[in-house]
Specification:
Helix content is about 50%, strand content about 0%. It has helices spanning about 5-15, 25-35, 40-45, 65-70, 75-80, 90-95, 100, 125-135, 140-155, 155-165, 180-185, 195-200, 215-225, 230-245.
Length: about 240
């Protein structure tokens, strides 16, 4: 994305892009800025009083999901100026609200999730996630596993431990794009090692292969991300774990 000064200059020359008829365009800018970790772009857009700030209800968006899925939760103070954080188990897990997470379980420890559709707001990305993961209609297990993934990605490890103790599957095929594993997803995130170590310490199956390429997380690191250091780190972590058994 362009630098902030160039971005502001372009919108100043074309002020109609800040208007109500261009809210979808503004929404797209925000999504791209999240993926590229350009909070300054979002802040500049808001400083220019973009119409998206006033749209009620807010436009459907992947913004909050992008923040939690790609370890960009530090952008939430900007994003929540437009979109509230949904009140469901995955979002409570992602922000590390353990007390709220516990409220989604009964005294016996079983999940009490209500309408499962409400645990997955039907934005286009959630529909895509279900289609790509071949999950079909939402189930309680899907909700638990998504909550686990988001808590691990965002290093909410106390929440992740609670979820593992209450039925979440550490070997779920949850991934942002296709059936694989949480470990596969972490390969492409900034500073994934604490989250990877958490999963490894708790016994994730490191031989899980993805649906499309038949590769392990180590293979994704080496080939997909071209990160030999990470691939060797995963190999060594697996070897050390096996030695402890």
């Amino acid at each position: 994305m362009a630098n902030v000064d160039a971005f502001v200059s372009a919108l100043t020359r074309e002020p109609q892009l800040l208007g109500d008829e261009w809210v979808d365009f503004q929404n797209g800018l925000i999504g791209a800025a999240i993926l590229n970790d350009r909070g300054a772009i979002i802040a500049a857009l808001f400083d220019l009083d973009a119409a998206i700030l006033r749209r009620q209800p807010p436009p459907r968006s992947q913004a909050i999901e992008f923040a939690f899925t790609y370890d960009k939760a530090h952008l939430l103070p900007l994003l929540t100026r437009v979109w509230p954080i949904p009140d469901d188990l995955p979002h409570a897990a992602a922000i590390g609200n353990l007390s709220r997470v516990k409220q989604w379980f009964d005294a016996s420890g079983a999940p009490v999730l209500g309408d499962l559709e409400q645990q997955f707001p039907r934005t286009s990305s959630h529909v895509q996630t279900y289609d790509d993961l071949h999950w079909g209609a939402p189930t309680a297990q899907h909700v638990l596993d998504t909550a686990l993934a988001w808590s691990v990605i965002n290093r909410r490890f106390d929440v992740a431990d609670f979820l593992l103790e209450h039925g979440a599957n550490i070997n779920t095929n949850w991934n942002s794009h296709e059936p694989a594993s949480i470990l596969h997803h972490l390969v492409f995130l900034p500073n994934p090692y604490p989250s990877m170590q958490f999963l490894i310490d708790r016994g994730i199956d490191m031989t899980i292969k993805d649906y499309r390429w038949n590769g392990t997380a180590q293979g994704w690191a080496r080939v997909g991300n071209n990160d030999e250091k990470m691939a060797q780190w995963l190999e060594e972590a697996e070897r050390q774990r096996e030695q402890k058994r």
